[in-house]
Amino acid sequence: MIGPRHNRVWFWLSALVLAMFCLFLLYPLFRVIASSVAASQDGRSGWAILVSDPTYRSAVVNTLLLGLAVTVTSTLIGVPLAFFTARFSFPGKALIAILPMTTLIVPEVIAAQSWLMVLGNNGFVTRWLGGHDIEIPSFYGWLGLVTVMTFIYYTYVYIGTLAAIRGFDGQLEEASQSLGVPPGRTLLKVMLPVVTPAILASSILVFTLVVGNFAVAMILGHSVNLLSVLTYQSFVSEVGANPVMQSTLASVSIAIVACVLFLQRWILSRGRFEIVQGRGTRPVGVGGVRAVAMAAVAGVIVAISLLPLVTVVIGAFTRARGPVMRWGEWTTANLERVLIGAPDPILNTLLYAGVALLLSLVISTLVGFLIVKKRNALTPAIDYLGALPLALSGTVLGIGLVMSFRGSWLPLAGTAGIIILAYLIRRLPFGIRNASSTLYNIPDSIEDASVSLGVPPLQTLFKAVLPLMVPSIAAAGVLVWTTTVAELSASVVVYSAGQETLPIQIFRLIDSNLMAQASAYGLVLLTIILVPILIATTVFKIDVFASR
């Protein structure tokens, strides 16, 4: 039996973790919200300015419209693609298996850059068409925003819907058809209500990601006012900006996401359908024109999904003079410049992300163990706070950290420590989710037996439980690493001169229209992301994206 003394150890560890969450997560969030109701230089609160200023009002409306538009387009692509993938076998179907890899690992800043290199004002397709007297609409603004974000986020809908359809009991469908109901009506009346919660959850996730998107919005938005962009500009601007507005706009983003998540929970709670475990439906082979059509659609989607990877590789080896890229002329000078002449962003990325990864694995493993195996009066709050960063955009988190730790008793602002802290908090939910997944399958009797033999609780954790958690911790490590090295929205707010990371440097180069050098850094960043994933999936057989 585990005595009261041992229980007190876990209680005090829970108290320590909760205190850390309160200090580094709740306190910055409170500072942001509190600052939004403070009086500005003209005596008005940020909310009063928001209501009266058409620029800020348009930013709220545009953000909501963009979120709805991308959610609709992502759903229109993701749901049919998932259905045909789950229900039919056709030539080229295996190519769709690479979609999660290509879209989830490519940083958003690289995706935006690659589309500009193709369809931007100096893009090679734009220039080629211009040489044939064919003008196309500007890719900046709504066209670019909706297009790029759709092909970044539709995979979330695809993955969620695919899992739901594959888990659907095919016997229900057969029973409906045996009663004379046509196949099409069966899909609408039997399958659709069952998979709707998965579609809804995935679509709402897309909406929240669009609201918090910074990289694509900043690079392609231009004349379209958006919350994330104005929040960042209000923070970095030294002239003409009201500092109160950074907090007000950040609070609006928080409110939008909170309302959407509440709406999701309310809708799902009213559902009356559930997936009953049974026999799945075997994919049906198709041929002829239908097979060609499905293969063509799959090929187009895969080609578009691979566009960022292919474009960045080509751009990294393309000769350039300033902003002018000489397509078809090859060189290694771009890579030599970034690897030998200016490697600091690479080294900073490896250092900051490496430290954040180590801290994340330690904290997420401890938190997972507490909320699964050592529940007490404090663990429900820890569980909730551990998932809270998922509802916060990186820009909001970064602003809160700078406001809280600039010139205070803990002066982290301006140091590398605040970048590491932003990385840690931003990606901690991924680590907690993965690290705790195995704990549900580890019997409590293993730990009880160890403690009953006189082994202290912490020593039992290291010797009896951790060895069984290694696969999930490894998966958490790879996932945290790949998302951390690609982080831009929080790091671009908190960094100081000399602390540029790869995403920040790429972002700055794109702003200067130096696409060749940005591509070289992008290729390095993709390599840093891909190598651990390939090693984990091929050598150690770790399913990195299982929790997604």
Molecular structure report:
The chain is mostly helical and 548 residues long. It has 2 domains: 7-36 and 336-548, MetI-like (MetI-like fold), CATH 1.10.3720.10; 44-88 and 106-289, MetI-like fold (Orthogonal Bundle), CATH 1.10.3720. The chain contains 23 helices and 4 strands. It has helices at residues 4-36, 46-52, 54-87, 99-105, 108-119, 124-131, 142-166, 170-178, 183-212, 215-220, 227-236, 243-269, 288-316, 333-341, 344-373, 379-387, 394-404, 416-437, 444-452, 457-484, 491-494, 502-511, 515-539, and strands at residues 88-89, 284-285, 318-321, 324-330. The strands form 2 sheets. A two-stranded parallel ribbon has the order 1-2. Strands 3-4 form a two-stranded antiparallel sheet. A hairpin with a 2-residue loop joins strand 3 and strand 4 (324-330). Helix 22 runs antiparallel to helix 23. The chain is globular. Mean pLDDT is 84; it is low at 272-277.
Summarize the structure.
The protein is mainly alpha-helical and 548 residues long. It has helices at 4-36, 46-52, 54-87, 99-105, 108-119, 124-131, 142-166, 170-178, 183-212, 215-220, 227-236, 243-269, 288-316, 333-341, 344-373, 379-387, 394-404, 416-437, 444-452, 457-484, 491-494, 502-511, 515-539, and strands at residues 88-89, 284-285, 318-321, 324-330.
